[in-house]
Amino acid sequence: MPPLRFLLTFTTMVSVLHYYIGSRLLNSVAWADWVLWAGWIFLVISTVLQPVAFLARGLRNHALRDTTSWVAMTLMGVFSSLLVLTLIRDIFLLVVAGMDASRFFQANFFTLEKNTALLAITGALVISVIGFFNARRLARVIKIKVPLRNLPATLNGFRIVQISDIHVGPTIKKGYLSRIVNRVNTLNADLIAITGDLVDGRVSELSTHTQPLAELNARHGSFFVTGNHEYYSGALDWIQEIKRLGIQVLLNEHVQLTHDGATLVLAGVTDITAGGFYDHHQSDPHAAIAGAPLHVPKILLAHQPLSSKEAESAGFDLQLSGHTHGGQFWPWKYLVPLQQPYVAGLHRLKNLWVYVNRGTGYWGPPNRFGSPSEITCLTLVPAND
Asked: Which residues form the Calcineurin-like phosphoesterase domain (predicted)?
């Protein structure tokens, strides 16, 4: 359960922001009385449920816990879109007011305020509805070819299937994960990479819902690295549980895979924030590659793209990451570059390729608008240069 000070601060902030939305979209427009009442009732309910989204995990009744989480998380997405569109509307009205004051043109503010308020409300609902269906449907398969230098002939066509950021938890359960596993198993992977943020909750709460991972099937097996959300959820317990499911966990270490006579090094690091939870989990790409043979392809699994700079200096050829969700829903993907070097897709950092998976599930609001979930199928091919 979140600390009381956090909840008080969060609730106060959310209350102020909901009042801002109401004062700008409801009070500033001459709506019918029933519209005003309906609008304010919705905002009050949304205000109350925002902190409840963090508290629902503590409810003992599973049905009540899941229902509360569903409603609270969904409203969180609607609130987010309403807030952004209200801000955009106010900026637009401010610009128009400035142009009107400078007599660039004459504006009808009564009509403009009502139409833009209606547009903001409609836009938030459209984003939420479309985003909901995009979030709940099975992730699409993205196929990528990655050209590696000095790739042995027998590794040409080596296939890695990556899944990331599923976030099994309040609204993602066993059925959702089973569909992902079934799709992954149709891709004939040579290895499966799970790049963190698999869960949002304790082993005691979610072990039944992560059981489908035991059915993952690949020639060289499945491999996992921790994400930041594993550390919020009891990482040490989850590491043991994931091992029990038959998945190899890589904690600043590597394995050598022999594929038709050729060697490939697969390494994994703990999340870049892990050292703040356990001293012995400090993320270290150099330690992960220590003792690996020279002149063979080296692939790193690292939850956050932030690991890429150190991965490149350590001598890796390819890094597979997640964490960003590609922004998950508009407009947050435009803010991801403030914290991460890459948002989604394939990128080059000197001699290192970095692929960032948009996430195979979602976190928080069941909403994906403008950033679809994905299962990534990466095929190694020889570089032309």
From this structure: 158-326
Which residue, 126, 60, 59, 123, is CA-closest to 86?
Answer: 123
| Residue the block writes with tokens 């027998």 | 154
**Domain architecture of the chain: domains with CATH:** 4-135 (no CATH), 140-382 (3.60.21.10)
pLDDT tens for 148-169 read 998 999 999 999 999 999 999 9
Amino acid at 163: I
Alpha helices in the chain (DSSP H): 4-25, 33-55, 62-101, 109-136, 174-184, 203-210, 228-232, 235-244, 285-289, 308-314
Which distant-in-sequence residues (6+ apart) come within 8 Å of 196 by Cβ? 164, 165, 224, 225, 226, 227, 228, 229, 230, 271, 303, 322, 323
pLDDT digits (tens, 9 = 90+) for 288-320: 999 999 999 999 999 999 999 999 999 999 999
The kind and range of the H/E element at 362 are: none
Question: How many Å apart are CA 59 and CA 68, to the nearest integer?
Answer: 9
